[in-house]
Amino acid sequence: MTDTIISDTPQITFSDLGLHPGILQAVAATGYTVPTPIQAKAIPVVMQGRDVMGAAQTGTGKTAAFTLPILQRLMPLANSSASPARHPVRALILTPTRELADQVAENVSRYSESIPLRSAVVFGGVDIAPQRDALRRGCEVVIATPGRLLDHIEQKNVSLAQVGILVLDEADRMLDMGFLPDLDRIVRLLPQNRQTLLFSATFSPEIRKLGRTWLKEPVEIEVARPNATAENVTQIAYPLSGDAKRAAVVHLVKSRGLNQVIVFSNTKIGTSRLARLLERDGVKAESIHGDKSQLDRMKALEAFKAGDLEVLVATDVAARGLDVAGVPCVINYDLPYNAEDYVHRIGRTGRAGASGEAIAFFAPDEERYLLDIEKLIKAKIPRGTLELPAQPQAATRRSSAGSSSSGRERSSRAYADMSSRKPVDDFFTKPYVASSVSATPQLPKSAASGKAVRKQVGVLLGGR
Question: Considering the entire predicted model, what is its pTM?
Answer without folding.
Answer: 0.63
